[in-house]
Automatic annotation (TrEMBL), chain A:
It is found in: Cell inner membrane; Membrane. It comes from Rhodanobacter spathiphylli B39. GO terms for biological process: cell division; cell wall organization; peptidoglycan biosynthetic process; regulation of cell shape. It comes from the Bacteria. One of its GO terms (cellular component) is plasma membrane. This is Peptidoglycan glycosyltransferase MrdB. The gene is mrdB. Keywords: Cell inner membrane, Cell membrane, Cell shape, Cell wall biogenesis/degradation, Glycosyltransferase, Membrane, Peptidoglycan synthesis, Transferase, Transmembrane, Transmembrane helix.
From TrEMBL, chain B:
HAMAP family: MrdA_transpept (MF_02081). Residues 629-639 have a biased composition (Low complexity). The lineage of its organism: Bacteria, Pseudomonadati, Pseudomonadota, Gammaproteobacteria, Lysobacterales. It comes from Rhodanobacter spathiphylli B39. Residues 64-233 form the Penicillin-binding protein dimerisation domain. This is Peptidoglycan D,D-transpeptidase MrdA.
């Protein structure tokens, strides 16, 4: 019995390693991105090798998960989807209950590691929306849109309540993209967007004071030199002083002299911009564009609606990371905790991103045989 | 056609998706282009400007923590102070070989385990260029020795800072509390901007409950740094706003007298001004030195405190719950008058045993054979159980507990300290919530003498007796009387309005109960008559001796077994003065006291003596008694054996030991 299991496990592992079902262009893009991330981190983290080593370790772990998930056929993923979504939402509820009266709680302590359930939703949310839309008549009508809206709102509301605005935005976007890709009529999109825009004054009312402060200091950073405004001012100085060619690797004065807060995590892109200049920024953005384009390509080749929507939504939410973080670093968007994918230091983000790409690899492996 | 429409059309969907994906990609490219435009705007169009700003970016803000507000007693005696101290700090970046440095340094300035543990913990959490405190509170000797050897230790420096000191130490530990170093839990809880640069936060007592006022608002200074990030000079300073100074209503002289009167025996005392709820003294014995906690208590000191069987860290006045015993009899008697069940003249015959009609179990009086016929004043004077057994039974538990609730039993008093116990006021609801058994009439009977489930904190009893002494006007007890912004600012009193109208409806009822309580002190057979000698104003009081657990023998108590009684009994004494115009109310609890009046009474008297002395011996608006100067003020005279001890055949009580 044990021997059988062992043999099966070995065969499975060997298959993963000898015949990986991956899309080479996408894998290559991610690899280059990871290298760029480690190089930037080395500089931003004051040449701290243990920091870089830790991040590399997470990349390896993420790559392992990517290979593992790539072996799971999309049809199996689809049948798991309601459970995965329900489970991750239930964990959010647990966090909400445990966090009662203790301020901001996002973590669940498992004893051996701390774990952020909202991270799971970044993947299970587009899965659920794709699962729901998969058997329906597309483009979706108002009824289906309303159901999808509810599927998005429950976990997103719980995350926003934690309060973690950045993740809430990412999760909502991931679900909304699946809906968009399903072919929701343009006039309906226009109507919904208009309605949401009309709700902004109401939503303002529900924001935490510190979240409002962040939006307000964006408009006038000089008003708060010790708090949020400091982030915005110093980040723009870093970016702007980089110029076209940059100051060169390991020559970011803003980061090295500690003017730039959180320069290994949320603001690492400012260090990158300072050291590599506009040319570096363009190259990195082009790399991101390539990865996103490749994701959409895989989505188009996918065999069924579920795979298509899921692959497309994962690719598009990758864009949200880049846009929100880049916009924040450049002083265009308020300070929210959204990392630059694969560049910012931090464990769960890199691991969950790579797991998401594992799903894409699996979809790629099960694509239509001819177009 | 209709059916076709509801069937899925894979080709059409695939096409639709392709169009959507293409549209999405175009939108994404537009978004990324927008991002690039913004970067180009910063990096090309405004490049020069930002280069200049980056080069001039030598100015860093640094928070200056505010000085913590000071704490004084009501007369301006300093209870909590900020004193300059020196600590040893290490900049990790500048140290090549940390273990060797610590080893070398240990020969110059002794470093113990606790110092090193705390240092290594902080070292892991901080950046390499930030200095980490290694040893707090250096002695002058250590500073001198380090100064001589300084050249050997690059990256190590002596840095001045302000630390908290409690000049009176243990005397106010349970009131003022102490501050402690901010730890990881606090970091999550505290506002990071307000606590920037602050190392300590209130941990207990006033320091904790008034943290907001004491803390103040930090200022900041703008520092010019060089290319290595080191400070060159200070460009601008925005001074911090220090925390408010607090003035407690406590009088240090009363506090001192109270603490000394206990002579180390475990117990608690509370003195309250009935006219405004101000706490004049509040002690819990034994106590501890709060200064130990300020800069991190050593493991040895801490285990010595926690392993002490008398629990010095335990605030008995605030959290200890004990059966109130006879001390509540005056209030039960008052309830009888107010409810119309009794007049002051109604009498009861005490035969030594009381029976609930139709039940065989007897509830004992304290004296064999009883004391005969007594009215209310007599019943209070001699603490006659039978009177109150019968009254409680006639009144019923619901009325009794509703009336007692008005005096604050069974709920926290609302004093300005954190962690107060609620105690237990026996009632049907309480029992239903805590037991499966129904309410028994016998439990009503013993509630009449403050036994059974009834449990109070010394603070609650002090509050109740102060409420009575103040003719029923309920004031929430308050420790902080006034605040002041700085030395030259005016004192700002904190208002403490009564929490409601008087709980006594007929003034005549007050007079009748007061008469009984005066007779406790002056009556021929009053239990407190040995305590009044030499006191120039009228006192009114009541003793109480509550049992920690049921007696095992049927013997009546006498003086031959004092040690046994002391181990079994809680001694209470409550008193207010002057009886004709009450201005202080005192409740004293002695955890192991044989008799209420003889054990706890002298402590109460010593508090009253200190109070009188603090007024220069003259209390305004009260009638002065003729006093023979010969009588020693507070010597506990030989106590005759007439202190009644309540007898409870049915109910064991020992709720006083659990926090």
């Amino acid at each position: 019995m044990i021997e059988v299991l062992y043999a099966r496990g070995r065969r499975f592992l060997r298959r993963i390693l000898t015949r990986p079902r991956i899309d080479l262009p996408l894998a290559l893009g991610l690899f280059v991105l990871a290298i760029a991330g480690l190089v930037t981190l080395y500089s931003a983290g004051d040449a701290n090798l243990s920091l870089v080593g830790g991040q590399a370790g997470r990349f390896v772990l993420g790559a392992g998960l990517l290979l593992l998930v790539s072996r799971i056929p999309p049809s199996v993923l689809r049948s798991w989807t309601p459970w995965l979504y329900g489970g991750s939402t239930a964990l959010l509820v647990v966090v909400a209950i445990l966090g009662e009266g203790r301020g901001s709680i996002r973590w669940l302590d498992l004893g051996f590691m701390r774990f952020q359930p909202s991270e799971l939703l970044k993947l299970t949310m587009p899965m659920m929306v794709a699962w729901y839309l998969h058997p329906r008549q597309l483009p979706p009508g108002w009824k289906d849109i309303a159901v999808v809206g509810l599927l998005i709102a429950i976990p997103a509301g719980l995350i926003a309540e934690q309060p973690d605005l950045g993740t809430a935005v990412l999760v909502t976007a991931a679900g909304a993209f699946a809906l968009f890709l399903s072919g929701m009529a343009w006039w309906r999109i226009g109507l919904l967007v208009g309605a949401v825009a009309g709700m902004i004054p109401v939503g303002w009312h529900f924001l935490h004071q510190y979240q409002r402060d962040r939006v307000l200091t964006l408009l006038n950073p000089e008003s708060d030199p010790l708090g949020n405004g400091w982030h915005i001012i110093q980040s723009q100085i870093a970016v702007g002083s980089g110029g076209v060619f940059g100051k060169g690797w390991q020559h970011s004065t803003q980061s090295r002299l500690d003017f730039l807060p959180e320069h290994t995590t949320d603001f690492i892109f400012a260090v990158f911009s300072e050291e590599f200049g506009l040319i570096g920024v363009c190259a990195l953005v082009a790399l991101y564009a390539f990865i996103i384009g490749r994701c959409l390509w895989i989505a188009m080749e996918a065999r069924d609606t579920y795979s298509r929507l899921l692959a497309g939504a994962i690719g598009m939410s990758f864009f949200v990371y880049v846009f929100v973080n880049g916009g924040m670093v450049a002083g265009m968007l308020p300070v929210v905790g959204v990392p630059m994918p694969m560049i910012s230091y931090g464990g769960t983000s890199a691991v969950s991103l790579l797991t998401g790409f594992g799903v894409l690899m699996s979809i790629h492996a099960n694509r239509k045989t001819h177009l | 056609m209709k059916i076709r429409r509801s069937i899925k059309d894979p080709r059409g969907e695939s096409l639709l998706f392709r169009r959507r994906a293409a549209a999405a990609f175009v939108l994404i490219l537009l978004g990324l282009c927008l991002l690039l435009v913004r970067f180009a705007y910063l990096q090309v169009a405004h490049h020069e400007e930002f280069v200049t700003r980056s080069q001039n970016n030598r100015v860093k803000p640094r928070a200056i923590p505010p000085a913590r507000g000071l704490i004084y007693d009501r007369n301006g005696v300093l209870l909590a102070d900020n004193v300059p101290a020196f600590r040893l700090e290490v900049v990790p970046e500048q140290v090549k070989d940390m273990p060797a440095l610590l080893e070398q340094l240990g020969h110059v300035v002794p470093l113990d385990r606790d110092d090193l543990d705390a240092f290594h913990k902080q070292l892991r959490q901080s950046r390499r260029f930030e200095s980490v405190p290694l040893k707090l509170r250096l002695t002058e000797d250590e500073i001198d020795r380090f100064a001589v050897n300084r050249w050997r230790f690059p990256g190590v420096d002596v840095v001045p800072y302000l630390t908290r000191r409690y000049p009176l130490g243990a005397m106010f530990a349970h009131v003022v509390g102490y501050v402690g170093r901010i730890d990881a839990d606090d970091v999550d809880r505290l506002d990071p901007v307000r606590y920037k640069g602050t190392s300590h936060v209130g941990r207990s007592g006033i320091e904790r409950s008034y943290e907001d006022m004491l803390h103040g608002t930090p200022g900041y200074e703008l520092l010019e740094v060089n290319a290595d990030g080191r400070t060159q000079r200070v460009l601008e300073t925005h001074a911090p706003k220090p925390g408010k100074n607090l003035y407690l209503s406590i009088d240090m002289r009363l506090q001192k007298a109270a603490e000394e009167a206990f002579a180390g025996r475990p117990g608690a005392a509370v003195a309250i001004d009935p006219r405004n709820g101000q706490v004049l003294a509040m002690v819990s014995v034994p106590t501890f030195d709060p200064n130990l906690f300020v800069n991190g208590i050593s493991q040895a000191d801490y285990s010595a405190l926690t392993n002490d069987p008398e629990k010095p860290l335990y605030n008995r006045a605030l959290r200890g719950v004990y059966p109130p015993g006879s001390t509540v009899k005056p209030l039960v008697g008052l309830a009888g008058l107010e409810s119309g069940l009794r007049t002051p003249q109604d009498t009861v015959v005490s035969t030594g045993v009381f029976y609930i009609p139709g039940q065989a179990r007897g509830y004992r009086d304290d004296q064999r054979g009883g004391v005969g016929r007594v009215d209310l004043a007599g019943a209070i004077e001699q603490s006659v159980n039978t009177y109150f057994y019968k009254l409680a039974l006639d009144m019923g538990i619901d009325k009794l507990s509703a009336y007692m609730a008005e005096f604050g039993f069974g709920k926290p008093t609302g004093i300005d300290l954190i962690g107060e116990s609620a105690g237990v006021l026996p009632s049907r609801e309480w029992k239903a919530a805590n037991s499966r058994q129904p309410w028994y009439p016998g439990e009503t009977v013993i509630a009449g003498i403050g036994q059974g489930f009834w449990a109070v904190t010394p603070l609650q009893l002090g509050h109740a007796i102060a409420t009575f002494a103040g003719h029923g006007i309920p004031y929430t007890p308050r420790l902080v009387m006034a605040t002041r912004d700085g030395v030259n600012a005016p004192l700002q009193p904190l208002a403490n309005p009564p929490s409601g109208p008087s709980v006594i409806r007929k003034p005549a009822d007050w007079d009748a109960v007061n008469l009984g309580m005066e007779r406790v002190m002056y009556g021929e057979r009053g239990t407190g008559r040995t305590l009044v000698a030499g006191f120039p104003y009228r006192l009114a009081g009541k003793s109480g001796t509550a049992e920690r657990y049921s007696r095992t023998t049927n013997a009546y108590d006498d003086r031959s077994n004092l040690a046994y009684l002391a181990s079994r009994n809680r001694a209470w004494f409550e008193v207010y003065a002057p009886a004709d115009n009450p201005q202080i109310a005192v409740a004293v609890l002695l955890e192991s006291g044989a008799w209420g009046a003889s054990s706890a009474g002298p402590i109460a008297r010593q508090i009253l003596d200190a109070w009188l002395a603090s007024h220069g011996g003259v209390i305004p608006d009260a009638e002065r008694l003729p006093v023979s100067n010969a009588a020693p003020a507070s010597a506990p005279a030989e106590v005759p054996n007439d202190e009644p001890v309540e007898d409870i055949p049915a109910q064991a009580t020992s709720s006083g030991d659990t926090p």
